[in-house]
Design goal:
Elements (H helix, E strand, L loop, with lengths): L1 H27 L1 H24 L17 H19 L1 H22 L11 H18 L1
Helix pairs in contact: 1-2, 1-3, 2-3, 3-4, 4-5
Length: 142
Amino acid sequence: MVGFLIALLSGALMSIQGVFNTQVTKVSGIWIASAFVQFSALCVCMLAWFLTDRTSLLKVFFVEPKYMLLGGAIGAFITSTVSKSMDMLGPARAVMIIVVSQLTVAYAIELFGMFGVDKQTFSWRKTLGMLTAIVGIILFKS
């Protein structure tokens, strides 16, 4: 239940952040806004680390495989693409498409056991759920 509530909070925060970032982008440009977002996230994370964890900062470099360290770089593109899509499509439509894209890619990662994730078996029920979400986007767009 706690995981469900955290996921709901995450989705809400992502939608709010997307709207905020879109407004910053309109004034400053996509890459400056993305850099500011990433920098402010760094500041918050460093403060949280300082106040709570204090695990060695260098431990991150022991992650294997090394390509897993690209999450931050991917985050820069997430920030810029979310801002741009919200500006072009509006928050509700953009978030629906983003969520269905996340779901589709996450399901593919599970099905094929990519990036060290345990491989899952194909499920028609999950596939039907995704297709239903896609139909929902089409209906919402009209």
